[in-house]
Design a protein that fits this description.
The chain is an alpha+beta fold. Helices cover 23% and strands 41% of the residues. It has a single domain, classed as 2,3-Dihydroxybiphenyl 1,2-Dioxygenase, domain 1 (Roll), CATH 3.10.180.10. It starts with a strand and ends with a strand. It binds carboxymethyldethia coenzyme *A (CMX).
Length: 133
């Protein structure tokens, strides 16, 4: 495994419109991108902090994994994403170590990154994402 840093922290919110002012006006961060990830049924808003991003996630459909998350647990931290060099090799290594992969092969995520999720049941309750540019 070759993880270099936390690429982003995903935070589930009911409404970007309601959440963005907290990050901008209270925390003093600047939203630099809003993007819909149609496949994941979410709209995302990004803030940069050092080399790590905060990614706010608003569900665009009741079938979105983020809608289900909010229904069950309420708004809050949804996933942690690590920057991984050699994403496919990392996934193969994790599978070999018995980690349950939600994506056996990388797919396209927000901001053009290649991404893959690991099942929270096999990562001590934290939904983890690996990403590569
Ligand atoms: N963090 C920790 N645990 C989570 C979780 C999360 N984000 N989401 C679900 N879980 C837990 C649930 O609490 C539940 O646990 P219990 O069985 O103890 O109640 C279990 O996982 C199963 O959850 P579920 O509500 O039945 O939902 P599903 O099994 O249908 O889906 C998951 C769970 C993780 C497989 C699904 O949410 C998924 O595929 N996630 C990855 C994709 C994703 O989240 N995309 C949105 C982000 C988009 C982006 O960043 O681009």
């Amino acid at each position: 495994m070759n993880l270099s840093h936390i690429e982003h922290i995903g935070i589930a919110v009911k409404s970007l419109q309601d959440a963005i002012p907290f990050y901008e006006n209270v925390l003093g961060l600047k939203c630099y991108n809003i993007e819909e990830v149609v496949e994941q049924k979410v709209k995302t808003a990004f803030f940069m902090l050092g080399q790590t991003k905060i990614e706010l996630l608003e569900p665009t459909s009741p079938e979105s994994p983020v809608a289900k998350f909010i229904e069950k647990r309420g708004e809050g931290v949804h996933h942690v994403a690590f920057a991984a060099q050699g994403l496919q090799a990392s996934l193969d290594e994790l599978a070999g170590k018995g980690v349950q992969l939600l994506d056996k092969n990388p797919r396209k995520g927000a901001e053009g990154l290649n991404i893959a999720f690991l099942h929270p049941k096999s990562t001590l309750g934290v939904l983890m994402e690996l990403c590569e540019k």
